[in-house]
Design a protein that fits this description.
The structure is a single chain. By secondary structure, the chain is an alpha+beta fold. The protein has two helices and five strands. The protein has one domain: 2,3-Dihydroxybiphenyl 1,2-Dioxygenase, domain 1 (Roll). Strands 2-3-4-1-5 form a five-stranded mixed β-sheet, with helices on one face. The longest helix is centred in the N-terminal third of the chain and has 11 residues, at 18-28.
């Protein structure tokens, strides 16, 4: 996976009203929607209107996402997550 290292691998947001936010981006930006099953409900994968490429996720604040803070979260691809986490620690 060396070709993806350092790139943004995914972006998503968790909110109380995921359906409302999904509708907002669908109307304003033109993103298409693909439901993503979470068991007893669906979150949303937002797709580019031009090529149908998955762009981001819009998630309900439920289950393991209940306590996530608001705002867009980005996931960056690294070669070794433990090494990257250790390098991120403050070392005076």
């Amino acid at each position: 996976m060396s070709d993806g290292i350092g790139k943004i691998g995914w972006i998503d947001i968790t909110v109380d009203d995921a359906t409302g936010l999904r509708n907002f981006y669908e109307k304003v930006v033109g993103w298409k929607v693909e439901d993503t099953s979470m068991g007893d409900y669906s979150d949303y994968t937002m797709m580019s209107p031009g090529d149908g490429e998955a762009i981001c996720g819009i998630c309900h604040a439920r289950g393991s996402n209940t306590d996530l803070p608001g705002g867009w979260l980005i996931y960056i691809v690294v070669a070794d997550v433990e090494a990257s986490a250790a390098a991120a620690l403050y070392q005076p």
